[in-house]
Design goal:
One of its GO terms (molecular function) is metallopeptidase activity. By secondary structure, this protein is mainly beta. The chain contains ten helices and 40 strands. It binds calcium ion (4 copies) and zinc ion. One calcium ion binds next to loops.
Length: 694
């Protein structure tokens, strides 16, 4: 077996907002063929407060105390079998690996988890008593080889886009271990896995094809990437998790019999001893599957790791190994699969709701190797196809079915999906000019949408800095550590044909940004869609020094009034579009804060606006800071009615004073700290930052 060199790793952290608490799911980890730009990235788990990284660890400890030592001591012969489905996400290249290569990988999993004698998995560790079975029955009870193949460019996988793979094909994760094989993973990552207790729709493992198994396209691999990733999926941390620490049982990987390790081992140095707080002081266990040593070095799980795996399978993943599930998936010994499963027709498209005129890409995902296809697309062009993966255009609004007859030498099968494609006439967008300055303190509003696919850090109203006071929107990439994830600010659909001239049709906006490190570069991309959001193209993009408007700093960037830049993008070529969509996309690299303000789309001709102009009212708040009352100096000199609202530092309305009758605001009952006081009168606005003492 050939080792594949240094293998840095990649760790994705997925934060879910639940009832106001941050729960952080470690998504670990990966082997890569070549060093990534951040070889220390997997030290992530030692860089972050253990209270966050190990948020789910108390649940494991509870499982361990509840269920052990039953699997080890009193039931030593019990085996747990995990049904597996392998989704081959390919684009017609060599990444469409053979069934033989897939079957070898499943065999390697069983060699490693079973410490099978005579195989490379026979090391000094233990048989975990976990076995893996390529599913023989699919979720509908149909005979299957446990392999799904889908032809899509998504084979070049962005870990930030985990949901994209699940949208293509995903079997009930409570009953199957979903394994995805792809051509590439961005950042030279070799694979990654979800951790127990992660959200069910994130469950599974992703591995690059050339590390999947030890034959075919993975002939240079030992197939241990999957062993390591499934270790994570079963609840194991890296042996070097959180470094040496102090206590060797209740810290690090929470496994007593794996010696603590300071940092990933990339070579098979049996004398490596990076921590001396273990007693006796043993060398690092470089042969452990949960370190980063080469495939031909690793060959063991310890009894302590077996305990954690057993606890996972007795607890959070108990259904998947239950007798009833083995019967449902054909993985119990009673089920005998026919030599040839009949073909089972299946297909999918990722765009089932489109505007008229949009192309829809249909992907065959029939089981058991279809060799010919007969498609029917009522309402579509073409209306029939014999391609495996046809593209169909729908010109007329309506709800349409799609049908596939998939065949091979063994027979044929039909799948018809009724009302599968919904084609609508595009709504005419908002008239120009379009302007948003975020200064009403409501966000998102004015038809703006926010997409935050990882539910982590996203675009928010910003009260600390603005181009037009008092508000802008910002995204805090200092905290946005799911590297590569996108966050979108989507403008409402616009009718550009409503412009009077069009020749000077422009998108203008102001942005502010600073870097936190010369190596980290967040990105701002502006994209435009003419087909109701089905496809977007870039019209503006900046990153790194081109994006920066302030000095590099490791502290949160808060721009002053001189640190805003204006961007102007010509939209002349879109002037006939009646439903144009524009979105601002932040791609985080863990840099620093990015701000946006005063987004305008107009034809350069000034228009009379009924919106309040941001002109100051001649008012003052005295005193500031204030305690129970504050005087509105100048109120009595202003003849028109003045309305007043008070917001907190997050832009949330705290009190609406309505029309002021006296030149004084009663602050009793408002929280201490920063208050934003906003006055409005006959199209004029004044906003003040008032500090209320406690
Ligand atoms: Ca340990
Ligand atoms: Ca040691
Ligand atoms: Ca986000
Ligand atoms: Ca503003
Ligand atoms: Zn890992």
């Amino acid at each position: 077996m050939i080792s594949s060199g240094a293998r840095p790793c990649f760790l994705i952290v997925f934060i879910v907002m639940t009832y106001g608490f941050n729960i952080l799911w470690p998504y670990q980890c990966a082997f890569a063929q070549t060093p990534t730009k951040r070889p220390g990235l997997c030290l992530f788990d030692s860089l972050y407060p253990s209270a966050k990284l190990y948020a789910v660890e108390p649940k494991f400890q509870k499982l361990l105390s509840t269920h052990l030592p039953i699997p080890l001591k009193s039931d030593p012969e019990a085996f747990s079998t995990i049904p597996v489905v392998v989704h081959i996400i390919h684009n017609g290249g060599t990444e469409n690996i053979s069934n033989a290569q897939i079957e070898r990988q499943i065999a390697i999993l069983n060699e490693d988890f079973g410490k099978l004698s005579g195989t490379p998995g026979e090391g000094k560790g233990v048989d975990t008593h976990v076995r893996f079975c390529l599913a023989k029955l699919d979720p509908f009870g149909r005979c299957t080889d446990g392999i799904v193949r889908i032809n899509t460019p998504l084979t070049n996988h962005q870990p930030a886009d985990r949901s994209a793979l699940k949208n293509l094909s995903f079997w009930n994760p409570a009953r199957y271990l979903n394994i995805y094989v792809v051509r590439t993973i961005s950042g030279e990552v070799g694979g990654y896995a979800s951790f127990p207790y992660a959200p069910p729709d994130e469950d599974g493992v992703v591995v690059r094809h050339h590390l999947f198994g030890d034959s075919g396209t993975a002939a240079a691999s030992g197939g241990r990437t999957l062993t390591h990733e499934v270790g994570h999926w079963l609840g194991l941390y890296h042996t070097f998790s959180a470094g040496c620490g102090q206590d060797t049982c209740t810290e690090g990987d929470f496994v007593c019999d794996t010696p603590p390790v300071a940092a990933p081992n990339y070579s098979c140095n049996l004398n490596s001893n990076s921590c001396s707080n273990d007693l006796p002081n043993l060398p690092d266990q470089v042969r452990n599957y949960m370190d980063y040593t080469p495939d031909d070095c690793k060959n063991m799980f310890t009894p302590g790791q077996k305990n954690r795996i057993a606890a996972t399978l007795k607890g959070v993943r108990s259904l998947i190994v239950s007798a009833s599930n083995l019967a449902l998936t054909g993985c119990d010994s009673a089920y005998v699969r026919p030599l040839m499963c009949p073909v089972a027709a299946d297909f999918i498209t990722l765009t089932t709701q489109v505007c008229s005129g949009t192309k829809v890409y249909f992907m065959d995902r029939s089981l058991n190797t279809a060799t010919s296809w007969e498609w029917s697309f009522p309402g579509g062009t073409p209306a029939f196809s014999i391609l495996p993966n046809p593209t169909v255009t729908y010109d007329t609004p309506g709800s349409f079915s799609a049908e596939l007859i998939a065949s091979n030498g063994n027979g044929s099968d039909t799948l018809q999906l009724n009302n599968y494609i919904l084609v609508s006439k595009p709504q005419i967008g908002l008239h120009l000019p379009f302007m948003v300055n975020f200064d009403d303190g409501a966000f998102p509003s004015q038809g703006i949408g926010v997409n935050n696919p990882d539910f982590n850090i996203g675009w928010e109203l910003d009260t600390l800095a603005a181009h037009s006071l008092p508000y802008s929107v910002s995204i805090d990439n200092l905290q946005n550590l799911n590297y590569g994830t996108r966050d979108e600010l989507v403008l409402p659909a616009l009718d550009l044909s409503s412009t009077r001239v069009g020749n000077n049709l422009m998108l203008n906006f102001w942005w502010a940004y600073a870097r936190s490190d010369p190596n980290y570069s967040d990105q701002l991309i502006v994209q435009i869609s003419k087909d109701c959001g089905a496809n977007y193209s870039n019209i503006w993009s900046k990153s790194g020094d081109d994006l920066a408007t302030g000095p590099t700093q490791t502290t949160p960037f808060v721009p002053n009034s001189t640190q805003w830049n204006k961007a102007s993008v010509r939209l002349f070529q879109y002037k006939t579009e009646q439903h144009l969509q524009i979105r601002f996309v932040n791609v985080t690299d863990g840099g620093n804060r990015l701000y946006l303000d005063d987004i305008q789309i107009n034809d350069g001709i000034p228009t009379a606006s009924k919106e309040p102009q941001n002109l100051n009212l001649p008012l003052q708040l005295i005193p500031n800071p204030a305690q129970e009352q504050v005087f509105v100096h100048g109120k009595d000199n202003w003849r028109e009615p003045i309305y007043c609202k008070v917001y907190d530092g997050f832009g949330r309305l705290l009190r609406d004073f309505g029309m002021l009758t006296a030149p004084v605001l009663d602050l009793i009952g408002l929280p201490a700290g920063l208050l934003l006081v906003r006055f409005e009168s006959t199209g004029r606005i004044a906003t003040f930052r008032l500090i209320k003492g406690s």
